[in-house]
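Lab manual, section 2.4: Encoding a predicted structure.

Procedure: take the sequence of the chain (332 residues), apply the prediction step described in section 2.3, and record the output as structure tokens. A sample record is shown.
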Amino acid sequence: MTKHFSFLTLLFVAGAAIVFGLTTLAHPPRALAGLPPTNENRITSLYDAFSANDNLEQDWGYSALVEYNGKRILFDAGNNADLFKRNVDKLGLDLRTIDFAVLSHPHADHLSGFNYLAQVNPDVKIYLPFDLHALGASPSVFRFGGPDSNAASALPPEQRYYGTGATEVNLLPSGRFYRARNVEYLRENLDVAPGIKIIATKSPYLGGFNGYPPNSPEKPTLSGLPELSLSLDTSQGEVLVVGCSHTGVEEIIKATRNATGKPVDTVAGGFHLFPYDQAYVLALVDKVKNELGVRRVSPSHCTGHLAFKAFKDAYQDRYIYGGLGSQLIFPA
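Recorded output:
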């Protein structure tokens, strides 16, 4: 099955971000409209291609709202600014209450909604990767099925892309621009506020376009894509929010441990494992769980059907469903 959506062609004057969200299970989040920052730490998924909430619109891309110690952070902003706005409105979120935003990397499916953020909150601080070169038009077809064409059949509908297990989309670049006033480009890690650290990494195998799997005969190794992740200090360890993990989710976990000196308790976001076969995925799951000691995971976006199941099988009740509209609550 093929889905159609618009992926923007990027030119940056300045750019945006958001803080991403983890999620609990198949329940829509409580309304957020007009609420002051709460004492409850939570991550709410605002944009994704799978959901248990039929009221929200699914699309390929990622965005999350992070609420932590009284701060509201937007992490990424999805593929389509208009769709992003509609989901934000349905979830009752007022983007004027965002304290700052983070863009994980300069791909259209993570940044388009910053057009809307800049409209309603033009002075909000946005942290961007240091290299925001224009990516140009996206390919006409983007496939995210991976080597196992039956992977989706092992999952319930709310865990399948678009509810059906679709693994292909037509990318229709919109050609829109995105602007913001108050931006900072990061090359290094940054302590933004008490307990909040932005982790800067660089992909060893991705340039300005998809080149997976790395080192394959068809796709030579690419390098150079900068990537930002968000680490939150809690009593149980770091809660780590990632956008697409082009650096490799295991490498981002290691970088976070090195930067904070603390274990990573929870990882949420896109793990970008859809291109890989079962052997690769199972080895990666084992490494994250047993070698790196991550206690909970909440995979979403580009993780892929095969990896969704592999992480669920390995983590059981410590696997947190990460679909659009879900929430993850975590301690201070």
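Check your result against the sample. The helical segments are 81-90, 108-111, 114-120, 249-260, 278-291, 305-315.
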